[in-house]
Fold MATH domain-containing protein.
Amino acid sequence: MGGQVHGKFQYMDVNEKIKKFTWRIENFSTIEDERLYSEDFVVDGNKWRIYIHPKGNDVDCLSIYLGVASSATLPSRWSAYAQAGQ
């Protein structure tokens, strides 16, 4: 079901508001796992992780998700804003 973390992980602060996360996956086209998880990383006191479906999640292309790694400890109706890109 869930795959191992493949490749290299890097996280750094770009400035006070921007956090940069890099997950380099080696030999991506040869991965057989249905789902892969990144290592957990912390932004603004919350643990996050990226998970992917290399062959898609009910679609025929890569599916990428940002998830809260510590959701059991969050208050009811908690929400956060995240923006992907440069």
Notes: The chain has one domain: 2-71. The radius of gyration is 14 Å.
